[in-house]
Write a structure and sequence with these properties.
The structure is a homodimer of 175-residue chains. The first copy, chain A, is an alpha/beta fold and 175 residues long. Chain A contains 6 helices and 8 strands, in the order βαβαβαβαβαβαββ. Chain A has one domain: SPOUT methyltransferase, trefoil knot domain (Alpha/beta knot), CATH 3.40.1280. Chain A has helices spanning 11-27, 40-53, 65-74, 89-97, 114-118, 132-143, and strands at 2-7, 32-35, 58-61, 78-88, 102-107, 121-124, 157-160, 167-170. In chain A, β2 (32-35), α2 and β3 form a beta-alpha-beta unit. The longest helix of chain A has 17 residues, at 11-27.
Chain lengths: 175, 175
Amino acid sequence: MIGVLRIGHRPYRDKRITTHVALVARAFGAQAIWIDCADDRIEANINRVTRKFGGDFKIKSGVEWKEFIHKWKRNSGTVVHLTMYGMPLDKMSSKLKKEKDLLLVVGAEKVPHELYRLADYNLSVSNQPHSEIAALAICLDRLTGGKWIDKEFGGKIKIISSEREKIVKDMGRSG
Amino acid sequence: MIGVLRIGHRPYRDKRITTHVALVARAFGAQAIWIDCADDRIEANINRVTRKFGGDFKIKSGVEWKEFIHKWKRNSGTVVHLTMYGMPLDKMSSKLKKEKDLLLVVGAEKVPHELYRLADYNLSVSNQPHSEIAALAICLDRLTGGKWIDKEFGGKIKIISSEREKIVKDMGRSG
């Protein structure tokens, strides 16, 4: 499984960025996101999307991040910290694809230095400053071999690709 | 050239999301971003990054978006609107790579319906809800054939990839 751990979340300041991080995690093939700071609103938002658009994505906030990383490693999982300072993702992705449980850690603006040591790998998606949202999307794209493109979520509603229109199909599922 | 047009920007509410959109545009190979609503602060932020990290990325805010799209098309450019309702990007990317001037339009939460008609193509990066930041990153990744990985920006400072450290190299360039 691939999980995402979001650290440094500040509910007021980061609510939209962390929402995008969570939606990207879900859309591009992660199975769960954990967020360090408790935030009921973001949990409710993401659960609403999942109920509507399908899948079994899990979200939990209020997680002690260091303890969480230690536990992940004790259970033989691999921890990858995405940072512009890390080694290039593309050189590592074939190795990482073979790991059973991957935890992708994305920080907000300031990341505790300790994380660089705790992570099994510090990996960069470009050494230029950009966005943890983009870094996570590209990382999941590479690690899943682009499988998000064909993933069926089996939701209550489904968007049907269209040249000029907004087509939302009611799939008639209760949930 | 590839340019990005950000529409529906609200300086207070969207400042961080639009900043991420602009940084992604720069890092993944676009040459410029235009933003509909005037916002000096975001211009200053992005120009500061470009002065420091290099390249010749341009930013301009306070652009009348409809006029801008019409002008782009009059100059034989192609307009691509990124939306979860559109046709799958991956089926179009080889065709789009041949276009000379591409304008990628990314909206904030609500997008005027007119845009669906004005754009040459409405394209989706997954039909699931996620993030315009992620959509833009994946789109630029596909359209540039992943060339962002090796791009040299020639900045005053450069991040050197490292397994556990933050290495910032002063390139001794004035600017």
